[in-house]
Design brief:
The chain is α+β, with helices and mostly antiparallel strands. It has a single domain, classed as Deoxyribonuclease I, Chain A. 23% of the residues lie in helices and 26% in strands. The strands form three sheets. Strands 3-4-2-1-14-13 form a six-stranded mixed sheet. The protein has a six-stranded mixed sheet with strand order 5-6-7-8-12-9. It has a two-stranded antiparallel ribbon with strand order 10-11. It is globular and about 50 Å long. The relative contact order is 0.16. The structure holds one DNA strand of 18 nucleotides.
Length: 268
DNA sequence: ATGGCCGGTGGAACCGGA
């Protein structure tokens, strides 16, 4: 079973590129981020014609996530639960999960678009960074439950986290950035160390492996990228991992997203 | 050395992104 994650940066602008990629790569499941569309505005028909079921969690103008699946999608949940009564509920459309049912086994797939968090400069107040850290705390709570369920499960999407220096062409440029601050990286490690496998790092320790290149400064041409789109697998999913990769060639095409698809293959 | 983009909204600039 091939499962992919793709921050498309706007479904309206990206529909032709998305359809081309779905035809070529043919993932069984695709988790999309930044659809930037309300549910009613999502172009269902064109995607359904390629054999996909669709579940969206949209919002006007920004954010928005979706699950596309050639298999049936069951038990869909939108948004992360609040941590406690003081926690504002997860009002931005950044999380969707569901169970995709294969012939031999089911997989719980969670698609996420973690907040960017910039600007993150103290001593000024930094509400966006606080929101990012609070969101990561909600994510960690959900992750613990997911592990406890002992399901074949994964959490994939745009984490907006540069985990290690190896994951940036110029790590020194990111030291004050919300994607790379020590608190961000510590929250990432807490999450992974619960018992998840970073699927790309399971298959390569190479540098220069990125999933995002800025539209500015000729970043793509100079491979000035960062790896911020990740697949975290529960042990039961990691047991079945046979391959993982990044479709970086999409970044060089006409009117690309600034992210490219990341994918895994599970023996299911 | 510096600045260079893009999508969405709404119908001009501005916000948000990373």
């Amino acid at each position: 079973m091939k499962i992919a994650s793709f921050n498309i940066n706007g479904i309206k602008a990206r529909l032709p590129a998305l359809l081309d990629w779905l035809r070529e790569a043919g993932p069984d499941v695709a988790l999309l981020q930044e659809i930037k569309s309300v549910d009613e505005g999502f172009p269902r028909m064109e995607i359904e014609e390629l054999g996909y079921n669709i579940e969206t969690h949209g919002q006007k103008g920004f954010n928005g996530v979706a699950i596309l699946s050639k298999l049936a999608i069951e038990d869909v949940v939108r948004g992360l639960p609040p941590l406690d009564e003081n926690d504002d509920s997860d009002e931005q459309a950044r999380w969707i999960e569901g169970t995709v049912v294969g012939d031999n086994a089911a997989v719980r797939v969670c698609g996420l678009y973690l907040p960017n968090g910039n600007p993150a400069q103290p001593p000024e107040s930094r509400p966006k960074y606080d929101y990012k850290l609070a969101w990561m705390a909600r994510l960690e709570a959900r992750a613990r439950d997911l592990l406890a369920s002992e399901e074949i499960a994964l959490m994939a999407g745009d984490y907006n986290v540069i985990a290690e220096p190896l994951d940036a062409e110029n790590p020194e440029r990111w030291v004050t950035d919300a994607l790379y601050l020590p608190e961000t990286r510590a929250a990432w490690r807490r999450l992974v160390n619960l018992g998840f496998t970073d699927a790309i790092r399971e298959t390569t320790q190479a540098g220069g492996v990125y999933s995002f290149w800025d539209y500015q400064r000729g970043a793509w041409e100079r491979n000035d990228g960062i790896r911020i789109d990740h697949f975290l697998l529960t042990p039961q999913a990691a047991d079945r991992l046979t391959a993982a990769g990044i479709d970086s060639t999409l970044r060089g095409r006409e009117r690309p997203s600034d992210h490219v698809p990341v994918w895994i293959d599970l023996d299911i």
